[in-house]
Fold:
Amino acid sequence: MAKKIETQGLDLYYGKFHALSGVNLSIESHVITAIIGPSGCGKSTLLRSLNRMNDLVHGVRVAGRVLLDGVDILAPSTNLSLLRRRVGMVFQRPNPFPLSVFDNVAYGLRVHGEMRRSHLLPVVESSLQSTLLWDELKDKLDSSALELSPEQQQRLCISRVVAVKPEVLLMDEPCSALDPIATGRIEDLMRALAGGYTIVIVTHNMQQAARVAAQTAYMLLGELVEVGPTAHIFENPKDKRTEDYVSGLYG
Amino acid sequence: MKQDKIIGAILLLVALSAISGLGLITVFIFREGVPIILRLGARQFFLSTDWEPSLGKFGILSMIGGSLAVTVGAAAIGVVFSLGLAIVLTQFSPPGLSAALKPLIELLAGIPSVVYGFVGVVTLVPLIRHTLGGPGLSVLAASIVLGIMILPTITSIAIDALQAVSPTYLEGSIALGATRWQTVTMVILRAARSGIVAAVILGMGRAIGETMAVIMVAGNALEVPHSLLDPVRTLTSNIALEMGYASGAHRQALFATGVTLFVIITLLNIAALGFSRRRPARSRVG
Structure:
């Protein structure tokens, strides 16, 4: 399998706090990779390094390399707008904009310069179809996205990212604000999307990683402890710390 | 216990007496002002431009026009600068800078209006006279002075409205590849819209009620302005300029001018309250 993303010796500091230390992680193309670990282990920070969302945090320092298709995205010459178009992100809490359903999905395209409604409409339709929202919402395109249920809002946020045709989808605990049934349906959606995208999901729910991910990485205290095929990590971990975590000794 | 109850009762009494003071003022103004409106007829009072107290003519249309002209002008100027300031301080500057500048902006509100008027007369009025023509004392001069005076009000409330916008909108927008500026114009201003509208309305309320600075720079001529360079008299100026020597019907007509002002400002405040009560849009689970 081809490597889509590779971090090499990635270190990250929030002020004096050493949040990531020497992370070397390869993410395969067109499969789902899960990052698991206890709260505060740096898994969200690692995820946010992959589209440079950490740049928004004051006093953050990064060292090492993050290669996307072999090109270092930490280089100062990186076009951040283009990077984030290629590497989309879905957040822990559904965060649709206080705009209409249509304007939410069309947002990314408008940001990248496409203003004609006739060009936007087919993309909005196909994006909503890919997240199975079209049938529910095709008559409500002009109503506010804030009136949708939490699950619909999260699907809408996924549609919004899919609309700009990213190569990678980063998902930061995308189901933690949803009930178990909605969680199951979002997981179905992830599996359905996996063929077309490289998906990286952060979760503290080990069962979720086991259900959706082909590859799993275990993090602890800012270090990448172990990474491998999901079955190996859960059934036959090499590292004692991974074994303790997946067998439920702590976390 | 017992002491708390006594203190509570005393505070209630103080609060009630302050409110009843306001209530008495309101009743007084209306009692003095409303009869003459009824006697002359609302049409004669509000829609005539003849204000000649010695002849018993009391039409305030030109002053309503003057007040509206300077208020709209002040709002236009105030909104541009205040909103710009609020956006820069909340979105584009390090947190320390906005924390340091916000109290300074609020300090501007504490400068007496006569000082603003004085600066306007000494610098702005001659500038307008020499560069644009006309007497200098004008709608334009009053709009600029008032625009600066309402800057602290609008800026401060707009900053609060912008800071109340959920940071998840910023993240979501940046993560889609938007720039900071696109995020501000496409999401954040939309989300803060009701608070910003309330800020502008409250600023307009301040502008329409301002007296001293306006008297000094507006020229106070009794005519409906036809250009930004024409002098105008506002409702507030009219009361302040003539109350000193007015008596009889003239005095009542000035109270009626006050009633008009009172109603306009009350309506503006109700509108502002209505807008600010609309909760800032937020995601349901957010």
Summary: The interface with chain A takes residues 94-95, 166, 168-179, 182, 186-187, 190-191, 281-286 of chain B (CB under 8 Å). Strands of chain B lie at 51-52, 57-58.
